[in-house]
Amino acid sequence: MKLLVTLERDETGMIVVECPAIPGCVSQGKTEDEALENIREAIQACMEARAENGMPLTVAVREIEVGV
């Protein structure tokens, strides 16, 4: 399964990574590689918790470009 994630550097310099298809699934790391490894672990844990609670594993997410 492939899921989109977002990466953003916070004010402390950490890279915060979030998986929009799994509400609340967020992690971070000092480097992009570390952040991506951490979100993989977080995604697995979140999906296990959602399955145990009878929730859908993911929610529908669409990426749309909006001109401003």
Short description:
This protein is α+β, with helices and mostly antiparallel strands.
Describe this structure as you would to a colleague.
There is one protein chain. The chain has 68 residues and is of the alpha+beta class. The chain has a domain at 1-38. Helix content is 31%, strand content 18%. The chain contains one helix and three strands; from the N terminus they run βββα. The protein has a three-stranded antiparallel beta sheet with strand order 1-2-3, with helices on one face. Strand 1 and strand 2 (15-18) form a beta hairpin. The longest helix has 21 residues, at 32-52. The chain is flat. The termini are far apart. The model has no long low-confidence stretch (mean pLDDT 96).
Approximate shape: flat
Helix proportion: 25-40%
Per DSSP, the total helix count is 1
Euclidean distance between termini CA atoms: 33 Å
Q: Please give the oligomerization state of what you see.
A: single chain
> Which class of secondary structure composition applies to the elements?
alpha+beta
Order of helices and strands: EEEH
How many whole angstroms does the radius of gyration measure? 13 Å
Average pLDDT metric: 96
Uncertain runs with pLDDT below 50, 5 residues or more? none
Main sheet overview: 3 strands, antiparallel
Provide the β-strand percentage band. 15-25%
SSE diagram, text form:
Blueprint: E1 6-9, E2 15-18, E3 26-29, H1 32-52
Give short descriptive properties of this protein.
three-stranded antiparallel beta sheet; 68 residues; 18% strand; alpha+beta; flat
